[in-house]
Amino acid sequence: MRVKMILPALTEATSPFFRPIKYSLFPPLGLATLAGYLDPDDEVTITDEHVQKIDLADEPDLVVIQVYITSAKRAYELADHYRAKGAYVCLGGLHVTSLPEEAARHADTIFCGPGEDTWPRFLADFRAGHPAPRYDSTERTLATLPPVRRDLIDRRRYLVPNSIVVSRGCPHVCDFCYKEAFFKGGKSFYTQAVDAALAEIDRLPGRHLYFLDDHLFGNPRFAAALFDGMRGMGRLWQAAGTVQSVLRPGLLEKAVEAGLRSLFVGFETLSSANLTEQRKWQNIGRDYEAAIRRLHEHGVMVNGSFVFGMDEDDTSVFDRTVEWAIEQGIETATFHILTPYPGTRLYDRMARAGRILHHDWDLYDTRHAVFRPARMTPEELEEGYWRAYRDFYRWGSILRGAATKPTLRGRLRHAAYAAGWKKFEPLWDLVIRAKQVGRLLPTLEAILAGFGAHPAVEEAAEPDEPVARETVAREIEPAGSHTSPA
């Protein structure tokens, strides 16, 4: 059987003018995971349209397309193309789960929720000649997960080919998050067995890893056992976690000993009222500044995530948030416009209030205002979002943030990483177009190798500087939500 798996690209990722590095960070791990369930004699290809062109002249028997909201239009175009050629087309992913009726118009079979239980059932039905038009996930387990088909991924096209997911979902219930809709009908957070996760890590070449889990620290017992098992493996890795998990005694220390060098942290808002409205309970009453200090003291760089447009936000929120982030010495920041994704409680609430402006899914990218904010206009929200990025990554802001570090070396590191990530984006574009991104991985590994050990020792030789355990490592911005295979 000839099987073609496709990750459609966002329009921006195929622009002839500029291509951001974030579209060349991670390979399509979800599709490679599903490929592991296919038979050895199946002819399988994975095409990531972010980094390669799709051959539309081929004639596969089965086409599998992973659909995100901002790639839905392109996904449907590809689905219609292959159905017209006689291929059997499957659609799955976050957007399909949220709007199954819409997706079903373009597919022979759709998948709702994670694919670990539905995909094997479909394959058995398909080979027997009676596939169902829809499969809904109900059983949530990673116990029989096969090895990821990384042999189908061209590692040279990605800066971070060693992405990995060892859990699914998140234990929290934030109103703006897709997760609740995606995992409806079963457990919304579950993990691999520790030994299986360690075996997958051991199969990966090189030193660097990026955990794409929504919340790697979500099960403290699992995380502690995983970090204990990783100690001594010589890995350097990055991940996402919460303020709550950073403040939990003992767990961060285990992560650092296992090789943690940077953490994507969802601060989201400085307003307690906003946190309450969005049911982000895990942040309420937490000391953000203490969490940042704790990470920096352990040599871990911070990539702070912030969301603009919640109901307590007025036009002053952008400057206040940027100024706070700079004062805290956050190395990199990721800003978002609040986006009411279909299937979320936020969407339902805004739809009932008549605040949704349109359903052009291409613009549901956290960079456009697709709803009517409470205390500003949509135009003010978009302008403030872009200003926040511009102001945070100004040279003056970078140098001010760097000045919060207690050592000269620490200040130079901060300036180098913040500038390297945002100030030289045109150079990243050239590297992407030359298909040379993978060649920079050894550089990334070399950079991370010097951090997170015991900075007090390495900085002791610097005269007239306070001794401190500090370091930074470039945070890789996740390209959209961390997702499970679907």
Automatic annotation (TrEMBL):
Per its UniProt record, the required cofactor names are:
[4Fe-4S] cluster
All residue ranges annotated as the Radical SAM core domain in the record: 156-374
Single GO molecular function: 4 iron, 4 sulfur cluster binding
Keyword Iron among record annotations: yes
Q: Which Gene3D superfamilies match?
A: Cobalamin-binding domain (3.40.50.280), tm_1862 like domain (3.80.30.20)
Against Pfam families, the record matches this protein to: B12-binding, Radical_SAM
Domain of life from the UniProt record: Bacteria
Tell me which PROSITE patterns the record gives: B12_BINDING, RADICAL_SAM
Q: Name one GO cellular component term.
A: cytosol
Fetch the SUPFAM superfamilies from UniProt. Answer: Radical SAM enzymes
**Keyword Methyltransferase listed:** yes
Q: Which InterPro entries match?
A: BchE-like, Cobalamin-bd, Elp3/MiaA/NifB-like_rSAM, Methyltransferase_Class_B, rSAM, rSAM_horseshoe, rSAM_sf
Supply the alphabetized keyword list: Iron, Iron-sulfur, Metal-binding, Methyltransferase, S-adenosyl-L-methionine, Transferase
- Annotated ranges, domain B12-binding: 7-133
Q: Which SMART domains does the record cross-reference, listed alphabetically?
A: Elp3
Query: Protein name, please?
Result: Radical SAM domain protein
